[in-house]
Amino acid sequence: MTVDSLVSAPRFHCWTPPGVYRPQTDTALLGRALCRERITSRTEVLDLGTGSGALAVEAARHGARVTAVDISWRALAATWCNALLNGQTVRIRHGDLAGAVPGHRFDLVITNPPYVPAPPADGPPRGPARAWDAGPDGRLLIDRICALAPAVLRPAGTLLMVHSHLSGVEETLDRLGTAGLRAEVVDRARLPFGRVLHSRLTWLRESGLVADRTTEELVVIRAAHT
């Protein structure tokens, strides 16, 4: 699935305003994994860090009841508009990860969190970088999602998360396992470094995160209760 094919249904519209993460290869990978799940009109889906809402709308098109969460009001506005433009219903919630839906559990949780390693900075990422910068190890939100997943999944629920190999795939699998979930990599794609990674290539090499290679592997991790 390409990015275009993710939104290639008849007359699919995806509006992405400045400052909101535009659907890219990671979005498409997660969308492909989403399409492999059994989704019915009774499936409740949580999209953590929805961004433009492309995946929330895709889940709704499959018949799911979708809740989309983001800490960015602009992202939620984009999600609301994209759901409206595509004739879908998506419930919008503002907040920090699952804190926006306290006490609720879901059949499927999908998330494309920030995962790009970033040089140490004073305070959390701000502005557009909040959509991709994730601390020196790229795990600023990944670790939190691993910890909260069991509490937001129903007993037969599933988590789908995409991130880069630069952020530690094995660590994510280990953390999800420690949390009581059975986790595995279900999809992969390798692509050249984009603008952001190229801009910090020297720091990435000095930090030992990359050597000579200037490609990254994206993976989709699927986790479920054991």
Automatic annotation (TrEMBL):
Keywords: Methyltransferase, S-adenosyl-L-methionine, Transferase
InterPro entries: DNA_methylase_N6_adenine_CS, Euk-Arch_PrmC-MTase, PrmC-related, SAM-dependent_MTases_sf, Small_mtfrase_dom
GO MF annotations in UniProt: N-methyltransferase activity; nucleic acid binding; protein methyltransferase activity; S-adenosylmethionine-dependent methyltransferase activity
Methyltransferase small domain residues: 27-115
Gene3D superfamilies: Vaccinia Virus protein VP39
Translocase as UniProt keyword: no
Biological process terms in GO annotation: methylation
Entry EC no(s): 2.1.1.-
GO CC annotations on file: eRF1 methyltransferase complex
NCBIfam families linked: hemK_rel_arch (TIGR00537)
Protein name (record): HemK2/MTQ2 family protein methyltransferase
Organism annotation: Streptomyces sp. R39
